[in-house]
Transglutaminase family protein (Ohtaekwangia kribbensis), 642 residues
Amino acid sequence: MKKIILACILVTGCILVSRAQSTDLWQQFKERFPDEPAVFIERSEVLNITQDGDSLRAFLDVSEDVLHLKEQTDMLSGKRVYGSHFNQVANIKAKTLVWDKNRYKEMVVSNFKKNSDRSAGIFYDDSYYYSFDFPSIASRNRTQLEYRENMKDVRFIHGYVFSSYLPQGKTTYTIKTTKDVDLAYQVLNDDKKQIQFRKTEKGNSVTYEWTAQYLPALKSEDKSPSLRYYAPHVICYVKSYKTKKGNVKVLSNLDDLYRWYYTFIEKLNKENSPELVAIAEKIKAESKSELETVKKVYYWVQNNIQYIAFEQGMRGLIPHSGSYVCEKRYGDCKDMANLIVNMLQLTGIKAYHTWIGTRDIPYRYTEVPTPLVDNHMIATYISKDGQYYFLDGTSDHTAFGYPSSMIQGKEALIGIDANRYEIKEVPVIAKEKNVMTDSMTIRIDGTQLIGSGTSTLSGFPKVFGGYELDRSEKDDVKRYVTKLVGKGSNKFYLDKYTLASLDDHDKPTRIQYDFRLSDYFQKLGDELYINLNLNKDYYNDVINITSRTSPRESEYKYIKYEVIEMAIPEGYTVEYLPPDARINGPLIGCDITYQSKAGKITASKKFYLDYILLQPDQFAAWNEAVKQISETYKESIILKKK
């Protein structure tokens, strides 16, 4: 929807130290952070909010001072400074301080190259970056950077994340303004009270300062959500300010945010093209109910409009008209949302523009009434019985009645009219509605298992599978099918497969396949050992509680059913069947049963995952269940020659 908040948390002003102090400083940080390649001596941002007539002006001064602790730190030589339409970069200065004979010599950077920042999946993007290289990166040398961001709208103040990819001696976020500016702020994820706050006043000037010292580097951990879920940071926004004409509201509450947002859509869809009207009328004529009309409009947009993202100034906020998007057959999230609203209006059905944040963003409208909360737009339909349907046209394979996975649990800001809106939380889809099944028959043939099976995907497994299976390259599809139905070991070979109902939103995707699996079982004398847990989901996936600090994220909750029917080889009898097992953890669990009957052994398993965000205080419960499940996976069947 918009790329207004830029991930540029590099920074800081030069710290002048004496020659003797520089040696001591290197030794001090080397001892404190012996395994790190470098450290921020200081990293800071200073936000200045000033009044220009009846308007506010904001600019951010960013600076950093990095001390290199190891010789091999060339990976830190390349830098980028990001800007966009809303945050214009100016006054970049960079240099390396080269330590030579107990003194620093300056090497100033002069070559700054401006580049367009085109992200994957973005058709047009007005963001950009300046790239450059620091010279002479080596132990004891320092690299210093400073620049200014001129902000076009104070509503887009993005706050400050204190953690960084390097450890920090000192990190500071400062806001300088006046008593006429009513500023709201809050510190998040600071349970250890690492951030110190100070507010000072002098005359009509007010300074807010947040400081932390000796913060360790923020380490990357697998399956982590965005860092604002767990990293200490401060968010702030201007509620209002005083002028000679009176008080001016900016973001004093959610009403202010909504009134501003509504200006982006109030003039849309005043004229409708004959093509759009004809499509809407045809859908209505072919539908037997209002709900069916909504469903068909939603599917029409999914199937006929190509998602292409735009990030271009206010174009990142204001949708195109429905007629324009219909004609061009492409658009971004807000274009597709507006088209759904427009088409339903043409059929006489009310639908509503809806602002929402994806799960990358941890904030809620009811807590932070600012643009920090959202980065996406959908449409909402409210049925006569009060059920809410969240219609995300960008999610191609999502069935009607499901939200897209990325907005589960998020607050939606539903625009009713010019003065009314509603906040509604998008449900987290229960695991019972996201189901995978896999049933197969297998037999032993020499040293191989030969098998055939049928797998089905419904709910979010169908959605995510659809993105991978709906490809033009057959090799890519086969690789994904192999990943999806593969089992036992890396000696699994997919002989053939067929797909059905891939493009039918309302039916499970069905995959039929034949496979071989070599060298999977063992023969010891007269006995044959085979483990029918061919899929060991989350085997030994124990979280290190002592080192992991971030939550763990899952795309969706789900249940997976598996049934394996194995023919008992001729001349063998069942010597041992593992006991049935049931592990019903609060976050993960499985039931496994075994049965021998009429020359066949049947192993049935139900596995489930029941979280989308696993918090550190839940790690112990997770580990306990995973250990029990992993032990159960080790059980093998024993067959013995008669």
